[in-house]
Amino acid sequence: MAPPTVSTEQPPPTPQLRSYAQRTLVRAAIYTIIGLVLLLIWYAIDLLLLVFAGILLAVFLRGLGRWLSEHTPLSTGWAVGAVSVLLVVMACGGTWKLTPLLIDQARKLAQDLPQAFNQVIERAQQFTFGRQIITDAPASQLFLDNQSTIVKQVTSFFGSIVGLATNLIIILFVGIYLAAKPGLYQRGIERLMPLDSRRRTREVLTTVGYTLQYWLVGQFFSIMVVGLSMVLGYTLIGIPLALVLGVLAGLLEFIPNFGPLLSVIPALLIALLTSPTKALYVLILYAIVQTLESYLLTPLVQQRAVELPPVVTIIAVVLMGKLFGVLGLLLATPLAAVVLVLVKLLYVEDTLGDRTIDIKGEEQAQEAVAQAADADPEPT
Q: What letter would DSSP give residue 327?
């Protein structure tokens, strides 16, 4: 009798096993794609920050164009073009008039600051307390060291004229194209979402746009008021290089909390070259302007602009500055504003089901989306 044969064939996988294997493969593929996307974002972060700066420019141009369109017969597209041309003309005119003076004063400021700092060190060394501070504080050596971290960051970003020109061109073209046809790119993002989520996606994107617009309006107003006040104040006090110091004070308003403090340091050092009395006047001027800004200007601006918690702002500025240098410092606050709005809309409202009432522009965005839906009821 022949021995019985033993089958070596494996039983076919059950439907449950096949389904589990498929889900595992899908999850692995998704996690791999997410990891690759995050890695790509990290390596392309400088370009993405430039794109975000272009988005800020687009929001600025679009806001001015929308305002001009509401007060003239021009359509929004033509109004954006007119605003862009007008700003270019104004920039060229201002460059032709003020740039030589600003460059000359900036060059003299770069020459005078080390001399002023050395003079402060020499005067402080005359006192026991001052000598102790200079000995214990490494900040003086950091200031004098041309290879300090801040100097290297500034040099790496602004040192190359070609690199700076390339960055400005990217920001300019991204801003103009987005301002001219924002709906094209917004619809592209919406089409990546499920049909039942596209209206909410449009509301979120529109709210973010209004958030950036309000933030830009507030920042522009603060920069203009503080810059003009400091130029006028330095001129009345008799501080040399008043124009470049005032412009610096205005521009550093773009960096909350730290910017105003950094702006007064060069003015104090230059004033000390003249007399300690003028340095005292600079401190008084700084205190007056910052008090008016904190208790009068900022509350008025934040009635319509974006109000960020101070701790969130400080963390964003320090983290972005440490990770991405000067460009991170400049874009930290608007990025924090966008992230805060997205957390409130997508997590607090949509996930937790709670209603937030402090998102400026949300109701305006919902009305705009509703009007657009009534005008074009077809799904996008």
A: H
- 3-state class of 145 per DSSP? coil
Which has the higher per-residue pLDDT, 164 or 312? Answer: 312
The domain locations on the chain are: 44-373
| Cα atoms in the 13 Å half-sphere on the side-chain side of 20 | 5
Structure-derived torsion over alpha carbons of residues 150, 151, 152, 154, reported in degrees to the nearest 10: 90
Q: How many angstroms separate the CA atoms of 114 and 135, rounded?
A: 18
For 364-376, what is each residue's pLDDT tens digit? Answer: 776 777 766 655 5
Q: Output the pLDDT for position 242.
A: 83
- CA 150, CA 142: separation in Å to the nearest integer? 9
Question: What is the per-residue pLDDT for 261?
Answer: 81
CB-based contact 240:274 (threshold 8 Å) = yes
DSSP state for residue 361 in the 8-state scheme: T
**Phi and psi (nearest 5°) for 255?**
-105, 105
Can you read off the two tokens belonging to residue 360?
Answer: 């400026």
